[in-house]
Design brief:
By secondary structure, the chain is of the alpha+beta class. Helix content is about 15%, strand content about 20%. The strands form two sheets. The chain has a six-stranded antiparallel beta sheet. It is globular.
Length: about 260
């Protein structure tokens, strides 16, 4: 009788084949509680939200609306102190990231995110072009802090779209390439859609080359979530990949990526 493959082998195969895989119940109760508490703490302590999406390849147009028209976001709360910090949650997922990537990893960034009714959809995009990194040797986790589905802005994926390779970086307000002369090969209608329903404690892991988006909420309430990015320990800084990223002013081009301080 052929033995059943272990869960990790199945998840690795799904990542390679589909570019994304839903991991049911991998976020423990205490980790989830820590994330809920961190979000409450950043809100009550007045930690500044991100003021704009990353225009990593051109200056933002003067008419660009604020990021709050899409999402409320806090960048790198793992660098905060006290109750606002998400570092314990990132450390809890670090071994899983290393297992899925098959090598040692470096924590690159994380985000606390709250989506609300009335905010616009997040357009289809890849994450890699927003980072000053040389190769897409990375894994992104997205963790909803409560039950989420398509009606409440759950993350969805174009299955297999990571096989396109690196595509032009988009303006996250309208989904068009930041470089007006760039042409994208991505057409969401050409790819099967993965549209999970998530329970609290679930996570989704995906490649930074996998196209993903989130629809507008059509139900009341909020969609709190946390995302974190782990890079291969072999990753190096490459300014040319995201020349306007703020890290380019504080990290050495070509140096190995490390968990640098705040920017």
């Amino acid at each position: 009788m052929k033995p059943e493959p272990d869960a990790l082998t199945v998840e690795r195969a799904a990542l390679e084949r589909d570019g994304a895989t839903v991991l049911r119940g991998v976020v423990g109760e205490h980790t989830l509680a820590d994330l809920v508490a961190a979000l409450a703490a950043v809100r009550t302590s007045g930690c500044a939200t991100s003021r704009q999406v990353l225009y990593t390849h051109r200056p933002p147009p003067q008419e660009a609306p604020p990021l709050s028209t899409i999402v409320e976001q806090w960048l790198n709360p793992f660098r905060y102190g006290g109750a606002s910090s998400t570092r314990s949650a990132a450390n809890a997922l670090r071994p899983l990231a290393a297992e899925l990537l098959g090598e040692a990893v470096v924590l690159f960034q994380d985000l606390l995110l709250v989506k609300k009714p009335g905010q616009k959809p997040f357009p289809w995009h890849q994450d890699f072009g927003f980072w000053p990194i040389d190769l897409p040797l990375a894994l992104v986790f997205w963790v909803p802090l409560n039950a989420v589905d398509e009606t409440t802005g759950g993350l969805r994926f174009a299955t297999g779209s990571h096989r396109l390779g690196v595509e032009p970086v988009v303006d996250l307000h309208d989904g068009r390439p930041q470089d007006a002369s760039a042409v994208t090969r991505f057409n969401p209608d050409a790819w099967p859609a993965l549209i999970p329903s998530y329970r609290a404690g679930d996570a989704v892991a995906f490649s930074p080359l996998t196209f993903h988006s989130s629809p507008a909420m059509i139900r009341d309430g909020e969609r709190p979530a946390w995302s974190c990015v782990f890079l291969s320990h072999r990753a190096r800084w490459r300014h040319a990949n995201a020349p306007r990223h703020p890290l380019c002013s504080v990290v050495e081009d070509g140096a190995p990526v490390s968990e640098v301080g705040d920017v």
